[in-house]
């Protein structure tokens, strides 16, 4: 080895010497570490609190507290969570682009049909989120949209393998904290019903591919497909669920997440137990999502709304309809806090 190489002080050697000296100094001055840690933890906690306050709206805090107390008194044995899927469990924006819905992510083998469904989306989605159209008129428009969209999926011969491929290519992501929320509820045997006007078969595939695990407490109530022996879509089971008819009849369609047969629309024993859980946390991004608990004779319900779009025009109605409203595509941490408050109670 040359003399030059042995005696040159390389940047690596300089950095390593500096690191040793710094560690030595810190060991002699532990107070510095304590102050630095406190300041930074405080700053991080303060930032989280500010972000939460910025995106959280509660119109009637007293009413919320009363509901929380009533639920706390019975504990987790009477609790269940009913959650919408698109834009509630999933994010509305992903890296500056609109996240896709379970309908929107589908790519059929014949792209002509994707274009047709995209045109329907461009026409009907602004109507879906328009705050000035009456519920009656909007219900008719939504029926029309779902009917046309489902017909195009059948006509275009959607296959199960196209579903798998579409999900793997999709721009779809869960809100931060969704997995932790599901895990927390699973550990306490609290059921979660995902109640969606989207497509059950796609939601199952999204859970499988994006979360890489299943939850024994999670069930899906949504539009379910029937495939022929070649794996081609031939029909949809039961009554169509769209954003404004999430009602009792739809609740009766509850089927366990892995039940691919799904022939029966009736309540199984397991599903019936859902009816005895009379404390409900409802999560939705649409006023129509409030109908998800209509089939239950609940005693207490805390409704959490995610307002993703048209905030200026829709906030007034959202804060009246929901006990808690989250803005700005907020993560699920606030809901996890709420649920953990409710579960750490006398009833447990
Ligand atoms: P959700 O009940 O899980 O929120 O699912 C319904 C969403 O699906 C709703 O916001 C509109 C959207 N949708 C599409 O993106 N494309 C479609 O073709 C249809 C019928 C609905
Ligand atoms: Mg939704």
Question: Could you provide a short overview of the structure?
Answer:
Its EC number is 3.1.3.5. The protein has 13 helices and twelve strands.
Tell me what you see in this structure:
β7 (225-227) and β8 (233-236) form a beta hairpin. The chain has 3 domains: 2-47, no CATH class; 56-94 and 175-343, Rossmann fold (3-Layer(aba) Sandwich); 100-168, Orthogonal Bundle (DNA polymerase, domain 1), CATH 1.10.150.340. Helices cover 48% and strands 14% of the residues. It is built from 13 helices and 12 strands. The chain is an alpha/beta fold and 348 residues long. Bound molecules: thymidine-5'-phosphate and magnesium ion.
Cofactors, ions, other ligands: thymidine-5'-phosphate, magnesium ion
Mean pLDDT over the full residue set: 84
* Major sheet summary line: 8 strands, mixed
CATH class group of the largest domain: Alpha Beta
- Please state the CA-atom Rg, rounded to the nearest Å: 25 Å
- The H/E string reads HHHEHEEEHHHHEHEEEHEHEEHEH
**Beta-strand percentage?**
5-15%
Could you tell me the CATH topology label of the largest domain.
Rossmann fold
Protein traits:
binds magnesium ion; eight-stranded mixed β-sheet; Rossmann fold; 348 residues; DNA polymerase, domain 1; EC 3.1.3.5; HAD_sf; 14% strand
């Amino acid at each position: 080895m040359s003399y030059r190489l042995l005696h040159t002080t390389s940047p690596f050697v300089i950095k390593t010497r500096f690191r040793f000296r710094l560690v030595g100094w810190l060991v002699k001055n532990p107070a510095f570490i304590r102050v630095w840690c406190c300041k930074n933890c405080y700053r991080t906690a303060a930032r989280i609190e500010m972000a939460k306050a910025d995106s959280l709206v509660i119109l009637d805090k007293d009413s919320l507290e009363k509901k929380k107390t009533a639920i706390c008194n019975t504990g987790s044995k009477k609790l269940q969570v009913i959650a919408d899927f698109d834009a509630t469990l999933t994010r509305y924006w992903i890296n500056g682009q609109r996240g896709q819905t379970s309908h929107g992510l589908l790519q059929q083998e014949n792209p002509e049909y994707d274009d047709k469904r995209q045109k329907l989306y461009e026409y009907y989605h602004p109507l879906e989120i328009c705050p000035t159209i009456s519920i009656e008129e909007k219900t008719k428009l939504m029926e029309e949209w779902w009917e046309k969209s489902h017909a195009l999926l059948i006509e275009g011969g959607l296959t199960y393998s196209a579903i798998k491929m579409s999900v793997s290519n999709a721009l779809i992501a869960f809100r931060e904290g969704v997995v932790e929320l599901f895990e927390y509820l699973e550990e306490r045997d609290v059921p979660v019903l995902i109640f969606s006007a989207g497509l059950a078969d796609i939601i199952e595939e999204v859970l499988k591919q994006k979360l890489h695990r299943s939850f024994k407490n999670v069930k899906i109530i949504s539009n379910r497909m029937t495939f022929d022996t070649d794996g081609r879509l031939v029909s949809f089971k039961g009554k169509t669920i769209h954003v404004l008819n999430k009602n009792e009849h739809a609740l009766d369609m509850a089927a366990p997440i892995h039940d691919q047969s799904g022939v029966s629309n009736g309540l199984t024993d397991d599903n019936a137990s859902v009816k005895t859980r009379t404390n409900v946390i409802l999560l939705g991004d649409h006023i129509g999502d409030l109908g998800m608990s209509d089939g239950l004779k609940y005693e207490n319900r805390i409704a959490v709304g995610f307002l993703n779009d048209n905030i200026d025009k829709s906030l007034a109605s959202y804060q009246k309809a929901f006990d808690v409203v989250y803005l700005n595509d907020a993560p699920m941490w606030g809901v996890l806090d709420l649920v953990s408050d409710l579960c750490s109670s006398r009833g447990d």
